[in-house]
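Worked problem 6 (solution included).
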Amino acid sequence: MQVNGMGMQNMHQNRYGLLNGGNRDMKNIMQSLSSEDREMIKTELQSLSKEDRQSLVSQITQLDYANMDSSQLTASIMEILGENTQTDSSSVSDDESNFSTYA
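Solution. The predicted structure is:
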C-alpha cells in the first residue's frame, strides 16, 4: 500500500519537475498560491514542451517567494511565463511576416 502512495506522490512531484531537477521549492511555491492561480499556472506550464517547462520552473524557483504575498508571487510567475509566451509569439509573427513577404 505504501508503494502505491509513494508512486502517486512521485507522479505528482514529477509533474512539477521536482524529481528531475530537485526543485522542491516549486511545490512550496505552488502551495503558496490561491487555488485559482495554481490551476492557471499549472495549465500554462503543462502546455509547454518539457524543455521549456523545465527552464521556466528553474526560473520560478529562483524567485524570493518567502518575501512575497500570493498576489506578488502570482504576478512574478506570470511575468516569467509571459516572457516565454512573447518570445514564442514574436517568432511566429516573424515567420508569418516572412511568409507573406515571400508569398
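Discussion: The CA atoms of residues 2 and 96 lie 53 Å apart.
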